[in-house]
Amino acid sequence: MTGDRATATLDLLLEISTLLATDMRRDLQARGLTAARTHLLWVLHHAGPATQRGLADALQVSPRNVTGLVDALVDTGFVTRTPHPGDRRAVLVELTGKGRALTEGLVGEHRQLAGQLLGDLPAADLARLSAGLEHVADKLRPLVPGDEMGGHRA
Amino acid sequence: MTGDRATATLDLLLEISTLLATDMRRDLQARGLTAARTHLLWVLHHAGPATQRGLADALQVSPRNVTGLVDALVDTGFVTRTPHPGDRRAVLVELTGKGRALTEGLVGEHRQLAGQLLGDLPAADLARLSAGLEHVADKLRPLVPGDEMGGHRA
DNA sequence: TATTGTTATACTCTATAACTATA
DNA sequence: TATAGTTATAGAGTATAACAATA
């Protein structure tokens, strides 16, 4: 039955999700980072300096939560808070050299992981896998309103 | 370049992971359940009554953590604690009628979601997607030691 | 009056360590 | 001596509400 095949495929997708999350979390932990803090660094890496308000929107998380994450990342030297020029209420959060080194390292590891998981798949198979995943993502995106962060994840 | 194609495919996989997690969490929250508690119910659904020790092993989480999760699920009426016949140190955790109704509902919704995401994919495409995902899972499983829970996730 | 970020408070998941009751 | 589960303590992520400074 096709229905069972679909269910088994969704199961596979969920298993892979868990495995990927576990694998990445372990790598980050070794460097003293959590998933939430890394996600914030990742947003800064892609978007450049941002206000905490902007980060809260990007991460879809409360402003109060951002305060805590930025506090921790300042303490550990990954980001700095500087006054916002032109709005004295706001601060600009930006990556330090250490922060930039980290996110650039992540890009490389990300690429390496992609190679490890998909590198020996024939190009035609990779294209078909990609197409299948696009199909799934297209169905899924409308189910989760207020996404916009597609891909920006560590 | 093939490398970039692989990276883009991994990105897609990560985006889908996030979307799936968000979608499922929202559904559960509406019923007063968190991901961790639901995961425990899911294990009971598949394995039947279990000791807290057994649950800790299955969930790969500390015994102390299980105490808290079971406390909450007892309070909300999803499981019961009964004395273990034959070992007076241990307790058996089992689903109540409410708990069973919930997990059975999850099975149905899971199937429905699979149909929604994959139902209109031609059988051949579904088979190729499935094969591609199997390839990824095969590469990924050895990277995450002590898994064994493949598929058992809510 | 609205917005930015903070303090105050609280809940959940998670962990380790020490302890009790049993094996 | 080892195991099952609890109490004690702690850290991280998350949220809402009230508040200060600024727009």
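qc> Chain B touches chain A through 56 residues (CB under 8 Å).
qc> done
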